[in-house]
Design brief:
CATH class of the largest domain: Alpha Beta
Helix content: 40-55%
Largest sheet: 5 strands, mixed
Number of domains: 2
Shape: flat
CATH architecture of the largest domain: 2-Layer Sandwich
Strand order of the largest sheet: 2-1-3-4-5
Number of helices: 3
Length: about 180
């Protein structure tokens, strides 16, 4: 019985010190995270000169254009359609590169295909020095496909292409935020 009381007294005297230590540790962590460059996703926005952008999407299909527009707006840009020479223009081209067969298993009908996509962009005002020279981003993805099930293979290739498109557009937005 005496042992239990002694433990409770010791626990009560250590509780304020433990709370103080936790508070100091939490404060140090909160000060360290921004100092090391960590930022929560979605809390950064585009620089002020990119708040109003004219999007010139040369060969994007409707889905790709909608995805790019949505990502730009989420980053803080308002998209303009008027042809204003003082307005910043973002010229974007997104398309597939030739796919490559990396390996094939003769007996099972399995093949490994490398899909590649390329996004090229340029940022600047019409007739002025560009803010960003023409830049090309590349993404690749290796897929294992079943040559015996062409419908499933076509669907997997389509989904993988959409995934590559999203990754490239996110990479573009990330680059614009870092200006």
């Amino acid at each position: 019985m005496f042992e239990q009381r002694k433990f409770k007294v010791l626990h009560l005297t250590l509780a304020p010190a433990t709370n103080l230590l936790r508070s100091i540790l939490l404060a140090a962590l909160l000060l360290y995270l921004p100092a090391c460059g960590f930022h929560l996703r979605g809390h950064t926005s585009l620089p002020a000169e990119l708040e109003s952008i004219q999007l010139l999407a040369e060969d994007l299909d409707a889905r790709q254009r909608a995805l790019l527009s949505r990502q730009l707006q989420q980053a803080g840009a308002s998209l303009q359609v008027a042809d204003n020479p003082e307005q910043v223009q973002l010229r974007v081209s997104l398309g597939p590169l030739a796919s490559r067969h990396l390996a094939a298993a003769a007996g099972s009908g399995k093949i490994i295909v490398r899909l590649s996509r390329q996004l090229t962009y340029r940022l600047g005002k019409a007739g002025a020095e560009p803010l960003i020279e023409t830049t090309t981003l590349l993404q690749q993805l290796d897929l294992e496909l079943d040559d015996n099930n062409l419908l499933d293979s076509d669907e997997r290739i389509r989904r993988a292409g959409e995934s590559l498109d999203r990754a490239l557009i996110e990479q573009l937005i990330f680059g614009l935020k870092r200006l």
